[in-house]
Amino acid sequence: xxxxxxxxxxxxxxxxxxxxxxxxxxxxxxxxxxxxxxxxxxxxxxxxxxxxxxxxxxxxxxxxxxxxxxxxxxxxxxxxxxxxxxxxxxxxxxxxxxxxxxxxxxxxxxxxxxxxxxxxxxxxxxxxxxxxxxxxxxxxxxxxxxxxxxxxxxxxxxxxxxxxxxxxxxxxxxxxxxxxxxxxxxxxxxxxxxxxxxxx
Length: 200
Prior knowledge:
Layout: E1 8-10, H1 15-23, E2 29-30, H2 37-43, H3 49-65, E3 72-82, E4 85-87, H4 93-103, E5 107-118, E6 121-134, H5 139-149, E7 170-174, H6 177-181, H7 185-194
Parallel strand pairs: 1-2, 1-3
Antiparallel strand pairs: 3-4, 3-5, 5-6, 6-7
């Protein structure tokens, strides 16, 4: 049986994205992209959060693809919006506590995007949305939660790992579980098959 020969590179250091690909049986190499995300966001002006996440996914994949001709490079990004405000990764434990207090009782919109770049061309991109309804969080719970989850959640937008204690933040979730984990995996797998990088 012939195997796909196009190498796959994940342009990310995200543990959750690696875990998703590992569990799905995808062979890949992880090479984090070095891009100035804030500069890219500023260049996009009034783009929507979904458009920004998709553009950042393309930019990350394109950066890694420059040094790996012939490889299919997967870039991915997630953005969080709550109460009409954009949130980045928390800069400190205190900042994480502020984010969580703001999220209390609100709906987090989580935009997760992915893109495939080969050589200098974007072969495919996609974005998806999940809506996470945050329950009312007491200050005692927030401190208890951060005792258990900091500094790991410092690497996440939204201050949670849904596969860990972060699930306790929510009373209801609308959307694909993989989108919540940070990458629209089913769409990614379909695109990899379409590109001949996975067996169909």
